[in-house]
Amino acid sequence: MIEPWKIKEAFAKVERENYKFRIYLKNHADVDELDEQFLELHNELFKEYDCSKCRNCCKEYTVTFEENEIEQVYKLLGITKEEFMDKYIEETVEGYDLKAKPCCFLAKNGVCEIEKCKPDGCKDYPFTNKPERLFSLLSIVECSSVCPIVFEMLERLKKIYGFKRRY
């Protein structure tokens, strides 16, 4: 598996290929079969991987909170909703986004300070165990520039599908 600090460089080498593979899958993959393949790879790779040694997702993405998630976090932090909203949140069309990037709740040792109540978007990232992956391949390719596991998944899927560079 690629080291987290090498992911950008590695992705740059296969970026074009990954986007071509996305198109290939759109045209040739069966929705259910691809979901099974992603789920199998997801379970296998996440079982072996310690995300706290990476946390690229926490460093690269902005967290979005749902209304019901906000209460849990400000209570955990021991502050009022108003204090939490003023200090940490920017209200957007999509919802409530964390102002800080990298995530201000990511400790230097890689521990999430709000682990007990972190938003679903964080818990579910990179979403490779969710159904209908065929329809979210663009985000999966983009995730492969951040997450070593997704990078590895795409490399393995290329082998499964016999996908070769065509340029």
From TrEMBL:
Which keywords describe this protein according to UniProt?
Answer: Cell projection, Cilium, Flagellum, Methyltransferase, Transferase
Q: InterPro entries per the record?
A: Puta_zinc/iron-chelating_dom
Gene Ontology MF terms in the entry: methyltransferase activity
Pfam families named among the record's database cross-references: CxxCxxCC
The GO biological-process annotations, alphabetized, read as:
methylation
Q: What PANTHER family would the database entry show? A: PUTATIVE-RELATED, YKGJ FAMILY CYSTEINE CLUSTER PROTEIN
Protein name per Swiss-Prot or TrEMBL? Flagellin N-methylase
Gene source species: Clostridium puniceum
Native organism taxonomy: Bacteria, Bacillati, Bacillota, Clostridia, Eubacteriales
